[in-house]
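Worked example 3 (structure in, sequence out).
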C-alpha cells in the first residue's frame, strides 16, 4: 500500500475507534517517510490513538516527534499537553498548552485546558513544601508556578531546594541560580541578585539572563560601570536585543551626569 492509502486507512480505523489497526497503518506510513513534514500529522494521529488506549507514555513520544518535525503546528503541543496531563505531570502539561495557546489564542478548548491545569496547580502549590520535593526538577517546576503567581518569596524557597538537590554536573544549576536571582530582583534585594548571578555565571559564563539580571541589579545600586560592562557582554553574546540596547543607553546617560 502507498503512503496515502495507509494514511487514509488509518484515519478510517481511528474514526471506527479501532486504535490498534490505526496505529499499525500510521506506523507503516511513517516508516516510509519518517523525517518528512507530512509524517508530523501521522505522529499526531498515532499519539491520539495511544492516548485513547491509555498509553500516555507512547502518546508523549509521538507528540514530541510531531513537534520536532513541525514545531509551529498546534496539534503537537496539544497532544503533548494531553499526554502529560494524563501522567499527572501538570507543570509540563501547562507549558505545552501555553505553547498551543500562543499558536491559536482563540481556542476555547485550549483555554479550558489551561484553566483546569491552573486550578490543579494552585491547589497543589498551596500544599507543597520545599522539603517535600524529591528532585531538583520538581522543585524548579513548583518554583516556576509560584513565580508566575507572583509569590516570589515562596518561589525563592523552591529554587533554593532545586539548588540543594542538584547533582554534580547538573546542566540546569545555572538556571536555578538565575531563577532565584529573578525572585530577589522582584523584591529589590540587589545584592542577593548579584550573588546568585555570580554563581550562575561561574557555571555558565554565557548565561545571558544572569548577565541581564546582574546588570539591572548594578543599576539599582547605581554601579553604572559594572552594569554597562554586563550589558556589553550580553550584547556580544546576543547582538541586537532591545533590552540590552536600552540598558546601555541608561548607563551611558548616568555616567555622563
Amino acid at each position: 500500500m502507498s503512503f496515502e492509502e495507509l494514511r487514509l486507512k488509518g484515519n478510517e480505523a481511528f474514526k471506527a475507534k479501532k486504535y490498534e489497526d490505526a496505529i499499525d497503518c500510521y506506523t507503516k506510513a511513517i516508516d516510509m517517510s519518517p523525517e518528512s513534514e507530512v509524517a508530523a500529522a501521522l505522529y499526531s494521529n498515532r499519539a491520539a490513538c495511544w492516548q485513547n488506549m491509555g498509553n500516555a507514555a507512547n502518546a508523549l513520544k509521538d507528540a514530541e516527534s510531531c513537534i520536532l518535525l513541525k514545531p509551529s503546528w498546534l496539534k503537537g503541543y496539544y497532544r503533548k499537553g494531553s499526554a502529560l496531563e494524563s501522567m499527572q505531570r501538570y507543570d509540563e502539561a501547562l507549558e505545552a498548552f501555553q505553547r498551543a495557546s500562543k499558536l491559536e489564542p482563540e481556542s476555547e478548548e485550549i483555554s479550558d485546558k489551561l484553566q483546569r491545569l491552573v486550578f490543579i496547580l494552585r491547589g497543589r502549590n498551596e500544599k507543597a513544601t520545599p522539603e517535600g520535593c524529591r528532585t531538583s526538577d520538581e522543585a524548579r517546576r513548583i518554583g516556576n508556578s509560584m513565580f508566575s503567581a507572583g509569590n516570589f518569596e515562596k518561589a525563592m524557597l523552591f529554587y533554593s531546594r532545586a539548588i540543594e538537590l542538584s547533582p554534580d554536573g547538573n546542566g540546569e544549576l545555572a538556571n536555578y541560580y538565575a531563577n532565584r536571582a529573578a525572585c530577589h530582583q522582584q523584591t529589590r534585594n540587589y545584592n542577593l541578585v548579584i550573588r546568585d548571578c555570580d554563581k550562575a555565571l561561574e557555571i555558565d559564563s554565557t548565561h545571558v539572563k544572569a548577565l541581564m539580571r546582574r546588570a539591572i541589579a548594578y543599576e539599582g545600586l547605581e554601579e553604572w560601570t559594572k552594569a554597562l560592562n554586563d550589558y556589553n557582554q550580553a550584547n556580544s553574546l546576543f547582538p541586537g536585543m532591545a533590552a540590552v540596547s536600552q540598558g546601555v543607553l541608561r548607563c551611558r546617560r548616568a555616567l555622563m551626569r
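Notes: Residues 130-256 form a domain with the Serine Threonine Protein Phosphatase 5, Tetratricopeptide repeat fold (CATH 1.25.40.10). The two ends are 77 Å apart (CA to CA).
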